[in-house]
Amino acid sequence: MFRRRKKNPEEDKAKRLKPSRSSYREALQLASYLRPYKGTFIPAILALFLTAGLSLAFPYFMGQLIGQGTSSGQAPTPEAMTASIDQIAMTLAAILLVQATIAFFRIRLFAVAGESALADMRRDLYGHLIRLPMPYFGEHRVGELSSRIASDLTLIRETFLQTFPQLVRHSVMLVGGLVFIFISSAKLAFFMLACLPVVLLLVALFGRKVRTYSKEAQDQLASSQVVVEETLQGITSVKAFHNETHETHRYGAALDRFLATTMRGASVRAAFVAFIIFILMGTITAVVWFGVKMLATGAISQEQLYQFILFSIFVGASMGSLPEVISQIQKAVGATETVRDLLNENVEGRDYPTTADGLPARLKGELTLRDLHFAYPSRPDLPVLKGIKLEARPGQRIALVGGSGTGKTTITNLLLQFYAPESGSILFDGQPATSYPLEYLRSQMALVPQEVLLFGGTIRENIAYGRPGASAAEIEEAARRAQAESFIHSFPEGYDTLVGDRGIKLSGGQRQRIAIARALLADPAILILDEATSALDSESERLVQQALEELMIGRTSIIVAHRLSTIRDADQILVLQNGKVAESGSHEELVKDPEGLYRMLSKLQFGL
Ligand SMILES: Nc1ncnc2c1ncn2[C@@H]1O[C@H](COP(=O)(O)OP(=O)(O)O)[C@@H](O)[C@H]1O
Ligand SMILES: [Mg+2]
Fold first, then answer.
1. pTM higher than 0.85, yes or no?
2. With 2 labelled, which of 41, 247, 291, 357 sits at a CA distance of 20 to 30 A?
3. Helices then strands (H, E): number in the chain?
């Protein structure tokens, strides 16, 4: 099921603050990641309930202890009293020791199960994300998406490892404490409970206000972060236009908005804490006051009173922290939505067969485009290709020329199966593209784009990207054929030179030759050169052109060229205009047409 809904951001925000019942159910689906670790997780949960239950022993025995120590009169002898005090203290100490030991293992087991499940989830998410079809990346701001995923996963992690155990502990203490209080003195319990609803209502109201502010502040902090990311990514532009001051102001303004909100939030929080101190402690005082009066009239024993007070404090503390715990869990359920939405998106390649059985290891390289029509999914009403035709025999060189924005890159995008055509078809060796597995088809093609992006490793690793597992000798052979050897040897570290983030330590021509070495190593049947030399100076262009000549031997090549000099000897030249092939033929044929577009373009470039 392909769910593509445009989301209303306001609605989205509201949902993240207060998730619906169905989103709780859906969030629970993610619990399936715990399944492989159930051998660890189930004992951890049992230990969690056990320690939570044992924590009720503390107010019980402590109350008894203090009650014994201070009770006077009825005690038979000081010796007997001391013995009983010692016994209670020992029991309590033993229980605490057991509780502490279980807690130690509980936390460790929880971390093992939780962190492993989360790592699996991250791995799945990443694997899924990079397999999503190209249109997905056109429709989403990828930077925003990835930072959203990162922060949501952090939230889920904290909630699972910290908040969830808190919820269990507090619930057990709350229920256990209330049960005890009622058993011990129903009258006192009713008095206490009468005070509570008012307190709880106010706590909830304040809590909601604090949450709204903190959410708003978080959003504002995120948008100030966008400024930082943008400027760092475009740091050359910022500096070249000496806009540092402008950007500093822009960041400052975003920070000011964040500050103003946090300040308002801080006031509410301060009032909240002040209120808690007064009201919650006040309530406890009232309960103690009432209890001591009952003690004076003999309605309860000393021991009961102390136990009652301690249990009340525990119950109060649990109740007080529940709103926080619940809101944290609500936030985490909201956070799972980004994760679930992403996992529900369909990966690409579903319209292709899955097995490459019976297919040749290498295609011959015959290529046919039949009446291709296409518009980008993000701009459906703007047709880009309006009936493109092309026939390439194996090993031919086909050049695509035409003004910028005429759809040359779009044709290469369709060849690489990044997008599906609206109508028309693409045939490889006479068979429709969709009759081959997607991975197989892509392995038959190599792309050398205008701007080559390298990964931040060594030169060797970047060349090996063309065929992971290639031997050192193969890599060096590819580099030699790609005219890259001399510059690689000019670096002191040779093939182990780090190329820097995205390859910034190499020049454009050097990066291009690494991309060509990659393609040589991949040895595909079809080669796509998209303005591979357009961004280069003439010296680098000469070297890259040489490397490209070597690369094109024995492959069908689709050459998108800006400079017509580089495609003169192509077997066919297609001149694109308005999403159609306006003219086609060899250089000699095309220049003959006095009215032709190609002739005009050549005139401009060569002065013919
Ligand atoms: N990812 C995209 N989403 C929407 N429109 C696009 C996208 N890429 C290119 N276009 C549009 O498609 C048209 C052709 O672009 P392109 O194929 O890149 O042209 P060329 O490579 O010939 O310069 C242009 O009008 C461009 O604005
Ligand atoms: Mg282009």
1. no
2. 357
3. 22, 10
